Amino acid sequence: MISFAGGLPAPELFDVSGIEAAFAKVLVDQPERALQYSTTEGDPQLRAAVADRMAARGLPTDPDQLLVTTGSQQALTLLAGTLLEPGAVVLVEDPGYLAALQCFAFAGARVVPVPTDDDGLIPEALDEIAARERPTMLYLVPTFQNPTGRTLPTPRRQAVAESAARHDFWIVEDDPYGELRYDGAAEPWIAALAPAADRTALLGSFSKVLAPGLRLGYLRAPDALRRPCVIAKQAMDLHTSTIDQAAAARYLHDSDLDAHIARMCAAYRERRDALLSGLQQALPAGSAWNRPDGGMFVWARLPTGHDATALLRAAIDHNVAYVPGAPFFAGVPDPGTLRLSFTTHSPAEITEGLRRLSAAISS
Predict the structure, then answer these.
(1) How far apart are CA 342 and CA 328, in angstroms?
(2) Which of 17, 41, 45, 349 is at a distance of 20 to 30 A from 219, taking alpha carbons?
């Protein structure tokens, strides 16, 4: 099976030796601390390292503004539990991240979709819906979005920040993919824009750039929001794994994470290009797809009359898989859409997977 379905980092690109050395170092140098209970806020050395990386990317950050979480998914759960009462309105990109939609549903929120186009969330639509719905929160993945791979341009980010200030809602800015850039210049975080500075929670993760098995994420938020999240996390799991935090801090001290990310990006760029170069031959005439500047996903749309969910059975019969786009919509789904991930297969495997997909569509 060649699967374009999973949003996983390539395991052969993990820096196993560097991570192994970091764990060995903390167990030799500070075993009592690494194996003991820790503070809920997180390892001070890790928070300092994350703060330094954020500052280097244009967002001055104090370590005390950060909360280390057990993956950024936990950060999202903490925010939902802290901010959302049953019936509270959450605005989301449409389509958007499926696990976030599930998280908000579990919190009893009312999820309201905001339309998007090829540049992501449409600010004029956001402003109109916010005025009507009086939301508590907007959740978005503005850089290399899941599932579409789209990136919100800077003018739209500024418009989002201004809309949040105008209509008094929180912004939850999720950025798991931002460092996986293959082309173009980086966009500023919404959290770095003045109108959003006091109303944005920024989520980050080591899952895509180091290893998802560590389950290390982090939340940067104003004190008024971060402190209740700390209390909620203390009740939930006390703290994130002490030894994993200590090893990550040691890795960031001893190894060059930026050089490792550059190696990942070189490989992923080649894989993205292999996928893009083969789609015209693999998909039916009249299909369309985007060209993401980074991340893990290409978003495709089949011609009218094609249903990506119905087609999946034939694809699996041909030993190839993808994710139909319909479940990612909070509003009316587009049945012709599909998400294709390119990170976990070599260019040769991607070419073969597209050949199988073409055969499935033709069958």
Answers:
(1) 18
(2) 17
Q: Where are the domains of the chain?
A: 2-12+259-362, 15-254
* Single pTM value for the model: 0.97
Strands 337-341 and 323-324: antiparallel
- Only one residue has tokens 């912004």, namely 171
Handedness of CA 73, 77, 83, 88 (dihedral sign): positive
223-259 pLDDT, tens per residue? 999 999 999 999 999 999 999 999 999 999 999 999 9
The domain defined by 15-254 carries CATH number 3.40.640.10: yes
Q: Which of 144, 133, 145 is nearest to 96 (CA)?
A: 145
CATH of domain 2-12+259-362: 3.90.1150.10
Q: Which contacts of 221-225 are long-range, i.e. CB under 8 A and separated by 24 or more positions?
A: 221/65, 221/67, 221/79, 222/65, 222/198, 223/65, 225/79, 225/82, 225/83, 225/170, 225/201
Q: With beta carbons less than 8 A apart as the criterion, state whether 9 and 207 touch.
A: yes
Angle between helices 44-56 and 242-254 in degrees, nearest 10: 50
**Spatial CB neighbours of 260, under 8 Å, sequence gap ≥ 6:** 15, 18, 209, 210
Residue 363 is predicted with a pLDDT of 85
Q: Are 309 and 283 in contact (CB under 8 A)?
A: no
Query: Cα–Cα distance between 359 and 363 in angstroms, integer?
Result: 6
284-307 as b/e: b if 16+ CB within 10 A? eeebebeebbbbbbbbbbbeeebe
Low-confidence ranges of the chain (pLDDT < 70): none
DSSP H or E run through 92: strand 89-94
